[in-house]
Amino acid sequence: xxxTQSPGTLxxxxxxxxxxxxxxxxxxSSNYLAWYQQKPGQAPRLLIYGASSRATGIPDxxxxxxxxxxxTLTISRLEPxxxxxxxxxxxxxxxxxxxxxxxxxxx
Amino acid sequence: EVQLVESGGGLVQPGGSLRLSCVVSGITxxxxxxxxxxQAPGKGLEDVSFISSTGSSTYxxxxxxxxxxxxxxxxxxxxxxxxxxxxxxxxxxxYCARDPGYYDSSGNFYPYAFDLWGQGTMVTVSS
Lengths: 107, 127
Fold this sequence. Notes:
The complex is a heterodimer of chains A (107) and B (127).
Chain A: E1 3-6, E2 9-12, E3 18-24, E4 33-38, E5 45-49, E6 53-54, E7 62-67, E8 70-75, E9 85-90, E10 102-106
Parallel strand pairs in A: 2-10
Antiparallel strand pairs in A: 1-3, 3-8, 4-5, 4-9, 5-6, 7-8, 9-10
Chain B: E1 3-7, E2 10-12, E3 18-25, E4 33-39, E5 45-51, E6 58-60, E7 68-73, E8 78-83, E9 92-99, E10 102-103, E11 109-110, E12 116-117, E13 121-125
Parallel strand pairs in B: 2-13
Antiparallel strand pairs in B: 1-3, 3-8, 4-5, 4-9, 5-6, 7-8, 9-12, 9-13, 10-11
């Protein structure tokens, strides 16, 4: 499965809403779709699994949606610590491919 | 405190070998499937290899198949990646990661995603 993320870069201000997209080349089984956040020099952090379930400790401003081949990650109001790179990943089969990433930077 | 600590990275010449280790603490290591994920400098994430909780099942990305071997020692709470015939395109930060998914009574695995990651170890392949 090939995952394509859009846009490549999103330039926004703190407090704004961010909507990130992830398209799959074929249907993702059982909505086994995850989102990760990665900051420079750090390992990725799991945000969303099962397309829409927040991982432990993730603030409720992060939400995931979609099914089949179209998925979204929404950050309702950007906080300064949210500026980072975000990756989607399918994990229902091997290889567990990742999208190429969306960078959210400060406008 | 849960920790995944990778080690073993470094500088190696093309064609050389390296063994990475990931020591896991704070969880019951033997219960979980484990993965190696890599990230080339300035690039995205790539799923490299998987090993089941018992070690009986493994998977390799096509890019490393036949050159890398994943293994684990559940008595030492340690995951390994033996890398051989290294190429410049293998240069990356290598992360170990856990999937806390479960096996049903029929042996089917229900995945969860990668909820725990190590800090990574850098592998540099250069002459």
